[in-house]
Design goal:
The chain is α/β, with parallel strands linked by helices. It contains ten helices and nine strands. The strands form three sheets. It has a five-stranded parallel beta sheet with strand order 2-1-6-5-7, with helices on both faces. Strands 3-4 form a two-stranded antiparallel ribbon. A two-stranded antiparallel sheet has the order 8-9. A hairpin with a 2-residue loop joins strand 8 and strand 9 (191-192). Helix 4 packs across helix 6 (143-154). It is elongated, with a radius of gyration of 23 Å. The structure holds ligand 9D3. Ligand 9D3 binds at residues 88-90, 114, 117-118, 133-135, 137-139, 141-142, 145.
Length: 247
């Protein structure tokens, strides 16, 4: 079983992930466990204080070192050894599918979600040096980022995706944007489904989808095509797509 533990002050923001959809099913099937440890349970003063004012002044509060450190250590006790560990913060490396795959190749994941202005930097120094960000926008804390990372990782764990996609199935599409999708009816508001999808053969459909995926990636995310590269077959399909552009 793949074991995920999240250190968070707001379990109610992370927990729904383990009860719904693909991740929920994986948990129910025993392929995945998701546990949440709150630093609040490691704050032992009168008011169970987990935050304090930042040294040097400024707005907001900072998560205190001790309760977060002790929550991390409690989380480690339920985690497999060699568990991947990350703090979620806006200062981290940007999360992507390559990182998701590396994390899923292991057998466990420990995430620390910050709140307020962040956690005491000495946690990163002394406990978990790797930080992950979702990108250049401001969240109110790490919990929703943790939910995103968990979803992306869980679907790569063997057995989590049933027949709906063997994640490998369309491996030739990796690194490309998705191709257009259609479902019934065949015509609606005078809009038709591309003919090849209705009566095309398997290989004709594969080539059409690959061409559309290459074309959309070329139009919208040329940076992705650059780093992925294209095969000889793909280069031909992309040239066809570009040719067909403005007719
Ligand atoms: C407005 C406050 N910012 C000052 C420049 C710093 C800041 C503190 C705390 C920014 C964000 C946060 C809370 N964010 C996260 O914990 C977080 C996050 C994010 O904000 N964006 C993208 N990925 C992530 S992962 C965790």
């Amino acid at each position: 079983m793949y074991c995920i533990t999240v250190v968070s002050l707001l379990p109610e923001l992370v927990e729904p992930v383990s009860q719904t959809g693909v991740v929920g099913r994986a948990c129910n099937a025993g392929l995945l466990s998701l546990d949440i440890v709150s630093p609040r349970d490691f704050a032992f003063d009168q008011h169970r204080t987990v935050d304090d004012r930042p040294y040097g002044g400024g707005p907001g509060m900072v998560l205190k070192y001790e309760p977060v450190r002790d929550a991390i250590r409690a989380a480690r006790k339920r985690s497999p050894k060699d568990c991947a560990e990350f703090v979620l913060s806006a200062q981290g490396q940007t999360f992507d599918q390559t990182i998701a795959q590396k994390i899923a190749n292991g057998n466990g994941l420990l995430l620390v979600a910050g709140r307020y202005e962040g956690i005491d930097e000495r946690i990163v120094q002394a406990e978990i040096s790797e930080e992950l960000s979702l990108g250049d926008f401001v969240l109110s804390g790490g919990e929703l980022a943790a939910a995103v990372v968990i979803d992306a990782v869980a679907r790569l764990i063997p057995g989590v995706l049933g027949h709906e996609r063997s994640a490998q199935e369309d491996s030739y599409m990796t690194g490309l944007l998705g191709h257009p999708q259609y479902t019934r009816p065949e015509t609606i508001d005078e809009l038709k489904v591309p003919e090849v999808l209705v009566d095309g053969h398997h290989e004709a459909i594969r080539l059409w989808r690959l061409k559309q995926a290459l074309g959309r990636t070329w139009l919208r995310r040329p940076d992705l095509l650059e780093s992925r590269g294209v095969s000889v077959e793909e280069k031909m399909l992309l040239e066809e797509f570009i040719e067909e552009q403005d007719n």
